What we know:
This protein has a single domain, classed as Four Helix Bundle (Hemerythrin (Met), subunit A) (Up-down Bundle), CATH 1.20.120. 54% of the residues lie in helices and 4% in strands. The protein starts with a helix and ends in a 6-residue tail after the last helix. The protein has a two-stranded antiparallel ribbon. It is mainly alpha-helical. The mean pLDDT is 95.
Amino acid sequence: MDPRDQLAEVGPLLAGVVSGIRPDQLDAPTPCADFTVRGVLEHMIGGATLFAAAYNGEQPAEPDTTDPLAAFLPALGGLAESINRPGALDQTLDTPFGPTPGDAFARYVALDGLVHGWDLATATGQTYEPDATLVAEIEAHARQMLDPLRDGTTFAAAVQPPADATPIERLAAYTGRKVR
Length: 180
């Protein structure tokens, strides 16, 4: 599946989860180590702003995270727009991981969004059931690229998921999250 198609599926999942977050849940802990719900949202807003600028060949603006619930969808919309720009996936980007092909980084963005969606849903008691085929495709890419990025902060060591884990729980465990 083209990474733009993956992102087209992940985007509405994220939007649904974020629209279900109440302001009183912003300080709740998440399965993403050291991040509250607010922290995950701010991280994603900052990343979306930085990555959109990279895809557009621009300097990133400082994102306004004063109200992360209001800032989230516009930031992700800007990222989606930049990734869908003609030629965006054909370029090499300067990323936090070094020079990265645009299509490979778009797959990373899909992984990041899918797993952070699980973080947010889990922290706020929401149902999160992404399509198993989407999760399998994103997990296949994660297994090819994630191990060199495991530094205990960006990604922790993989965790063994429970035997009855759902596909998204297995992927979350592979990225280092404790599941159930």
